[in-house]
Design goal:
The protein is mainly α. It has 6 helices and 4 strands, in the order E-E-E-H-H-H-H-H-H-E.
């Protein structure tokens, strides 16, 4: 088995502020996506958007994705807990982001942007969707560093071996 690498999820700390790999993956994903869209637009004739409009688009997308990911986690996974502790909803630094919520939030923000700036939603989709694998891949890398989203327990030689103290209680999976 491959040993699970011991990577600290915190890159560095300054007092109570912690810069984590998972957050860094979000930043790198947004940056890579932004640069790739700008590159695509340079090759297009006629131009669909100018640089300022792309900046606006990415502001909408980042806010929509992050809010959607957090609210998706709140509603899809721990609604009862957050209902009894509503101030914890904004405590995103304690973890809890959802892919499905992020997807919904990004779609809604792109739809709102397309309506506001009169850009076809399909055109935005064509520009943005090619960058999605970069963000998803970086997100999975952040999940790996955090030691989350592992798969089924296996004894196969190409599986990842987890240290005994890695998780308080490993999940139980139904037998196939």
């Amino acid at each position: 088995m491959l040993p699970f690498p011991a990577i600290d999820p915190v890159i560095f700390s300054i007092g109570p502020l912690q810069v984590r790999w998972y957050g860094m993956m979000y930043i790198l994903g947004f940056l890579a996506s932004y640069l790739l869209v700008r590159l695509q637009l340079r090759w297009q004739k006629p131009f669909v958007m100018d640089k300022e409009r792309v900046d606006d688009l990415y502001f909408y997308l980042m806010v929509g994705l992050i809010l959607g990911a957090r609210l998706g986690y709140v509603f899809f996974y721990n609604f009862k807990t957050y209902l009894s502790h509503p101030f914890e909803i904004v405590a995103f630094w304690q973890g809890g982001m959802s892919f499905h919520g992020g997807l919904i939030g990004a779609f809604l923000s792109a739809w709102f942007f397309s309506r506001r700036y009169r850009v076809k939603l399909w055109t935005l989709g064509d520009l943005i969707i090619v960058t999605a694998p970069i963000g998803l891949g970086l997100g999975r890398l952040g999940n790996f560093i955090n030691g989350e989203l592992y798969g089924r327990i296996t004894t196969l030689p190409w599986g990842m071996g987890l240290s005994p103290g890695w998780a308080a209680a490993p999940p139980s999976f139904p037998a196939l």
